[in-house]
Structure formats: structure tokens, C-alpha cells
Design brief:
Number of strands: 14
Strand order of the largest sheet: 1-2-3-4-5-6-7
Shape: elongated
Strand content: 15-25%
Largest sheet: 7 strands, mixed
Length: about 290
């Protein structure tokens, strides 16, 4: 199931059949946050499930409908962030498909789309879609309502923004939670996954190794946060009142381009909130401090 790294294979509007059951389309929304664009997947042979319609872009919606070699009966949302879910209404209007997912933060902002699911999914639910079975895996962390879908027939796991190819995902509090994210990653290690179909980028063909790498990366970053916080607030000449996020950012993300620091600070906050939850840090008046 080797997925080529040729740039054309992730070109918007060009469907790529990944195996007997799955076709991928890429939305025309490439950016530093979305990589080459949001991946939309058609799953099934006759009656089809559509995973993550992507943005409400007319060209992308037309490409989805043209690529469907059967009736789209279900729209599955991994989560309700705008680059994955604003196209839901357009596809439903065109097909009458049932919307399946979980309620989001409910703020209806530009970042988190307000969508009413026809069916709310729970962990472990199994969906018969076009003769194949998708298992629902709750994976909160990037978003509180995040889901992954495991195609039981082949072991392909559709990960939305839980796992991206070529990059780590942003954990953006308060809806994003680092402790939940790491636990959700750890859970994947026990599942019969053969290949990862991410929300952005190419297929990932060594899933266990990739999940383990991501866990190791997050815990290593947490160690940097812990060390920087102790140095700033618990060592000699430290400020016992605590330290603000921006003072820790250059120390913790010294390996990340400064241009990405406005995004990195969100995950830094998530790491610090995890340390507070774990009883290793305290937060007051906008400042964090280590608990010795």
C-alpha cells in the first residue's frame, strides 16, 4: 500500500484510490497549519462513508461528488475544526447523507464549527458502511470531541488531526488537553492498526513506530517544560511568584523557528496545564511555578 511522495499525489481535486475500499481527495487549503491540505476520504464500495468533508470550498465539494462511485450515505466527522468540517452542510445538502460525530466546544467560532450530528457516536461503536466496518475510537486531546475511525477489514486508521504526517499537531486549550492527548496516543498502541490515514499528508505505514515516536516526542517536550519551569521558579535567584508563558517559550521551543512560536505557545500552555493537573506546577494570576 505504498503511498508515493510525489507532490502530484496530494494535489487538490485529484482522487487517489488507496485500496479496494478507500479513495483520498485533498482540499485546496494548503497552509503552514494544514500542510498540503485537508484529506477527505471516501470509504466503501456502493454505499459510501465520507470522512471529513473539509472546507466549504465549491471545487472541493464538486471533486468529492465526482469521485464518489456510489451513494454517499454517511458523513463522519473526526472533529469540528473548520478545516475539516465546514463542508459538512454542502455535502449533506447535495446527498442527504446522515451526519455522524460528536458535539464540539459549541462556540460556533471560525475555529470550531457548530454542527448538529444526526447521530452522536460513542467509543466502540461499529458502523457498517458499504459492506465494511468502521470502529469508532474516541481520541480526545487535539479537540475534546475528536474521533478516529478504524477500518476493521484492512486495519487502516483514519486519524483526522490526532496524527498528522510530517508534523506534530497543536494542542490548543481549553478544548485541547495534553494529558488526554497523550493517553489517546497510548491507547492506539493496543489496536490492530496496519496503516494510518492522517487528516493531512501521506499514509503512514509503520503505525506502532509512529505512535511511539509521537509519545516520546511529547514527553521529551514535557521534560523541557518541566526543566525550564523549575529553573525559572524554583532555583537560586528564581521568581517564586511564577513565570508567564512568553518567558518560557524561547527556552522550551528553541528548536522551532520563531515564526511558529505563536502556534507553539498554545501547546506550551497545554503542557503547563498538564503539569498543573499532575500536581507538578501551580498557576495563579497568569503565572506558572514549579512545585518543589
Amino acid at each position: 500500500m505504498a503511498d508515493t511522495l510525489a507532490g502530484a499525489e496530494l494535489s487538490p481535486g485529484l482522487p487517489r484510490k488507496l485500496d479496494r475500499y478507500v479513495t483520498r481527495l485533498v482540499a485546496p487549503n494548503a497552509s503552514p497549519m494544514t500542510g498540503p491540505g485537508t484529506n477527505t476520504y471516501l470509504v466503501g464500495e456502493r454505499d459510501l462513508a465520507l470522512i471529513d468533508p473539509g472546507p466549504d470550498d465549491p471545487e472541493h465539494i464538486r471533486a468529492i461528488l465526482a469521485a464518489a462511485r456510489g451513494r454517499i450515505r454517511w458523513i463522519l466527522c473526526t472533529h469540528t475544526h473548520s478545516d475539516h468540517a465546514t463542508g459538512v452542510a454542502a455535502v449533506k445538502n447535495a446527498t442527504g447523507a446522515e451526519i455522524l460525530g460528536r458535539p464540539g466546544a459549541g462556540n460556533g467560532t471560525e475555529h470550531d464549527v457548530l454542527i448538529t450530528a444526526d447521530r452522536v457516536l460513542g467509543d466502540g461503536d461499529e458502523l457498517d458502511v458499504g459492506g465494511v466496518t468502521l470502529q469508532v475510537i474516541q481520541t480526545p486531546g487535539h479537540a475534546s470531541n475528536h474521533l478516529c475511525f478504524l477500518l476493521r477489514d484492512t486495519g487502516m486508521l483514519f486519524t483526522g488531526d490526532h496524527i498528522m504526517q510530517g508534523s506534530t499537531v497543536v494542542i490548543w486549550p481549553p478544548d485541547g488537553n495534553m494529558r488526554a492527548y497523550i493517553r489517546s496516543l497510548e491507547r492506539l498502541l493496543s489496536l490492530p492498526i496496519e496503516v494510518i490515514a492522517p487528516g493531512h499528508g501521506y499514509l503512514i505505514e509503520q503505525p506502532r513506530e509512529e505512535v511511539s515516536r509521537l509519545i516520546k516526542h511529547r514527553l521529551a517536550r514535557e521534560d523541557k517544560v518541566r526543566s525550564a519551569l523549575r529553573e525559572a521558579t524554583a532555583g537560586a535567584n528564581a521568581d517564586r511568584k511564577g513565570v508567564e508563558l512568553q518567558r518560557l517559550l524561547p527556552r522550551v521551543y528553541d528548536d522551532v523557528p520563531v515564526s511558529l512560536h505563536p502556534v507553539a505557545v498554545l501547546s506550551l500552555q497545554a503542557h503547563l496545564e498538564k503539569l498543573v493537573e499532575d500536581g507538578e506546577a501551580r498557576f495563579a494570576a497568569g503565572r506558572y511555578a514549579a512545585i518543589s
